[in-house]
């Protein structure tokens, strides 16, 4: 059951009910090698702390952020920071959690995920992000072919009452008994905090404890519909502000 309604009605609660942890496992920050993002991983951690998050994964495009001082900040803020990446494999994005830089560099094709899965067993988690969104990298119907390597299917944040490409993903997740996780796939600071997953697990459960709770469907994805005004803002950011910033950055680089 996905908690929806309108975004305004779904202000992130600073402290979810006892026994549940608040998590977002698909996030981008300024350290991203592909996208131009204006807030750092450290900014995001502090914001997450304010919003009552217990677990995060910063999933840069094709890169794992390994930074011990960042991990230390996360510990001090009471946030479990799980290493991860959003890998583009044969044109399809895949979110892999709890992997190292070295492991990420060894995954090139969708078929490599099976070997990774076998090697790592339950200590890693593989999510199919926005599988039916055509902009960017989506798996589409290939999700069916590779469904066995996935632990969970993402509910993409980009939906309104009248536009929702999550329906097919939800149908497949239900058919194959895969849990749904909601994420913000944040590329902008204001895009973080409204879409997340509540997981029934102890805040002190290790990474594997959290993954186990997800696999056991002890999750409540929270993903409210965008209002038309929020949709307009998002599209403006994607197609105007971001493009302008990218152009400025390229110009600055050229000197
Ligand atoms: Zn992403």
Description:
There is one protein chain. By secondary structure, this protein is an alpha/beta fold. The protein folds into two domains: 13-224, Metal-dependent hydrolases (TIM Barrel); 226-255. Helix content is 32%, strand content 19%. It has eight helices and ten strands. The chain has helices at residues 41-50, 68-76, 101-105, 112-120, 142-145, 167-175, 207-215, 228-254; strands spanning 20-27, 55-61, 80-81, 84-89, 92-97, 125-128, 152-155, 180-182, 196-200, 219-222. Strands 1, 2, 3, 4, 5, 6, 7, 8, 9 and 10 form a ten-stranded mixed beta sheet that branches. The N and C termini lie far apart (52 Å). Zinc ion binds at residues 26, 28, 86, 185.
Concise synopsis of the structure shown:
With 255 residues, the chain is an alpha/beta fold. The chain has helices at residues 41-50, 68-76, 101-105, 112-120, 142-145, 167-175, 207-215, 228-254, and strands spanning 20-27, 55-61, 80-81, 84-89, 92-97, 125-128, 152-155, 180-182, 196-200, 219-222.
